[in-house]
Design goal:
The protein is of the alpha/beta class. It has helices at 6-12, 32-42, 61-66, 85-102, 106-113, 146-154, 171-182, 194-199, 205-226, 256-267, 271-277, 303-320, 324-334, 340-343, 347-358, 361-372, 376-387, 395-401; strands spanning 19-26, 73-80, 131-138, 158-164, 186-192, 243-247, 252-254, 283-285, 290-292, 412-420, 427-435, 437-439, 443-447, 459-463, 467-471, 474-478, 480-482, 486-488. The protein folds into three domains: 6-251 and 363-377, 3-Layer(aba) Sandwich (Rossmann fold), CATH 3.40.50; 260-358, Yeast translation eEF2 (G' domain) (Alpha-Beta Complex); 389-488, Elongation Factor Tu (Ef-tu), domain 3, CATH 2.40.30.10. The strands form six sheets. It has a seven-stranded mixed beta sheet with strand order 2-3-1-4-5-6-7, sandwiched between helices. It has a three-stranded antiparallel beta sheet with strand order 10-11-18.
């Protein structure tokens, strides 16, 4: 059952600090669409048990038939995410830095950030400061459809880069990552297909760590090569919570944050310190009860392996070997309770269900998107130069820079692609509103790619016939849509 209504989605669009617009980018067949299913299932749009197999964002018949994404597909989703104090401070610092740089009032930003409850409890989830709207666009990975990736990146502020842990960083991974940084889109990383490394290649925990480290280093080399100063340091680090690991097909995954919280409580170590210890050359000497920097000739295990990968490997081995007593013991240790029908499962179906409940990948991805990726209000401050060709101190540029949603703000919308409708011969103009608001019946100036300021070629004046929210395979009609959101007309 879907966790939200169209009215709630539209209401949440007013809170620009609670919006995240992001693309999923990767090399072909690295698992973007299966991973996207995790968020779609978390939002209640598809059943959890079918996530990873449905590929909800593959909307065309030829995509389902060929098993690859051909056209990028947008879908907005409503989530509740309760932050820790540390996460809230991190987000406020990210927004505060941007605000300070342009001299905007931080108090106004704080007021805008806090959304008051506006919907009654009877109609579903109440919109609060913990409510977030994720505008997700799943893009193709095949080199022939790279124009679709460009169209997706132009209208998003963040990117989830997916890398196959076995194949590593491939040619198209570098291409799409370079495109993302050129558009000043901030990346986070998901290392995918960990299940294959464990089941097919039978890698040890240490081998897994080395494989992860190679993939992360390769991504960071590309980011450093094409880095933009205005983006700041956008390299990805597991110890900073900008990297997740897992399996899109089996719907499980984690960031170091989950384990750091658990172990910091258990050992009485500070959360930030535990995050640092769980990655890199950190080893815990159980006999001496101390942290060391070397493995003492193989006598102690790396903290990442000891506290994260070894428990996961034990769970995999117990389930695939069908050791029922050991499975029950491990389930109790990790706090997973199975339903009656789930207990009858064996092998991979049981493994998928257990890992889904223990380490749901939707939670890990949502955490990265909300905490690590910028809101439109923060991102448009440094993206305005890329988005607007006119003078950067005029009314339109200032409206884009501040993501102005007020009634008098000039409408500035970028149309990234034309989407064919079910009516033959008609198209939806899909894009993002960068300032003002677009409304049904509104008269607008449409400037084509060959428009020259001051001339009338490639310029049209039209009325907006309808305003639509693109919901993947469906469209929902609304009266208007404010800045910071994707939409169709």
């Amino acid at each position: 059952m879907v966790n939200f209504t169209t009215e709630q989605l539209r209401e949440l669009m007013e809170y620009k600090y609670n919006i995240r617009s992001m693309s999923v980018i990767a090399h072909v067949d690295h698992g973007k669409s299966t991973l996207t299913d995790s968020l779609v299932a978390k939002a209640g749009i598809i059943a959890q048990k079918h996530a990873g197999e449905t590929r909800y964002t593959d909307t065309r018949a030829d995509e389902a038939e060929r098993g690859i994404t051909i056209k990028s597909t947008g879908i907005p989703m409503f989530f509740d995410y309760v932050m820790t104090d540390g996460e809230r401070e991190e987000i406020q610092a990210m927004e505060g830095r941007s605000l300070k740089a342009t001299g905007a009032n931080a108090e106004d930003a704080a007021k805008a950030r806090k959304a008051e409850p506006v919907i009654g409890e009877d109609s579903g989830p109440t919109i609060t400061e913990n409510s977030y709207l994720i505008n997700l666009i799943d893009s193709p990975g095949h080199v022939d459809f790279s124009s679709e990736v460009t169209a997706a990146l132009r209208i998003t502020d963040g990117a989830l880069v997916v890398v196959d842990t076995i194949e590593g960083v491939c040619v198209q991974t570098e291409t799409v990552l370079r495109q993302a940084i050129a558009e000043r889109v901030k990346p986070v990383l998901h290392v995918n297909k960990v299940d294959r490394a464990l089941l097919e290649l039978q890698l040890t925990p240490e081998d897994m760590y080395q494989s992860f480290a190679r993939a992360i280093e390769s991504v960071n080399v590309i980011i450093a090569t094409y880095n933009d100063e205005l983006l700041g340091d956008c390299q990805v680090y597991p110890e900073k919570g900008t990297v997740s690991f897992g399996s899109g097909l089996h719907q499980w995954g984690f960031t170091l944050c989950k384990f750091a919280r658990m172990y910091s409580e258990k050992f009485g170590i500070g959360y930030d310190k535990m995050m640092q210890k769980l990655w890199g050359d950190n080893f815990f000497d159980a006999k001496g009860k101390k942290w060391v920097k070397t493995d003492k000739d193989g006598t102690v295990e790396r903290a990442f392996c000891q506290f994260i990968m070894t428990p996961i490997c034990k769970m995999f081995t117990a389930i695939m070997d069908d050791k029922k007593q050991k499975i029950q013991k491990l389930l109790k240790a990790v706090g997973v309770t199975l339903k009656k029908e789930d207990e009858e499962l064996v092998g991979k179906p049981l493994l998928k269900r257990v890992m889904q409940k223990w380490l749901p990948v939707g939670d890990a991805i949502l955490e990265m998107i909300v905490v690590k990726l910028p809101s439109p209000a923060a991102a448009q401050r440094y993206r305005v130069e890329n988005l607007y060709d006119g003078p950067l101190d005029d009314v339109a540029a200032n409206a884009i820079r501040t993501c102005d949603t007020s009634e008098g703000a000039p409408l500035m919308m970028y149309v990234s692609k034309m989407v064919p409708s079910s009516d033959r011969g008609r198209f939806f103009a899909f894009g993002r509103v960068f300032s003002g608001r677009i409304a049904t019946g509104q008269k607008v100036r449409i400037m084509g790619p060959n428009y020259v300021p001051g001339k009338k070629s490639d310029l049209w004046v039209k009325n907006i016939q309808r305003t639509l929210i693109m919901m993947g395979r469906f469209q929902e009609q609304v009266l208007d849509i404010p800045a910071g959101n994707t939409c169709s007309t």
